[in-house]
Design a protein that fits this description.
about 100 residues, alpha+beta, two-stranded antiparallel sheet
């Protein structure tokens, strides 16, 4: 059996992801829900991010037969817990 067949599902996703890019960029263009594909959700973890739906609005949206509303969280590694002013501005720009 070849080594390629022994790969786990996540390793196959990583291997096909174009350097952990996947289709994250295209998925983020979905302005209705902000949801991205399952494969891209797995790739996000390698970038220190994860996708979560708004639990407070989940039931309300389900009653209206709307898709879940998603947002993202990004983990930052902050030595000593401090940001320089330039890092704060860059973080703010990313978060928009």
């Amino acid at each position: 059996m070849s080594e390629k067949n022994n790969l786990s599902a996540i390793e196959k996703v990583k291997q096909a992801s174009d350097g952990l890019r996947g289709t994250i960029n295209e998925g983020l263009l979905d302005e209705v829900t902000g949801a991205i594909s399952e494969d891209d959700q797995a790739l996000l973890k390698f970038h220190g991010m994860y996708q979560q739906d708004d639990r407070d609005r989940r039931e309300e949206r389900a009653e209206k037969k709307l898709e879940r509303l998603y947002s993202f969280m990004i983990r930052l590694r902050l030595p000593g817990g401090f940001l320089t002013p330039e890092q704060w501005i860059a973080t703010h720009h990313i978060a928009r």
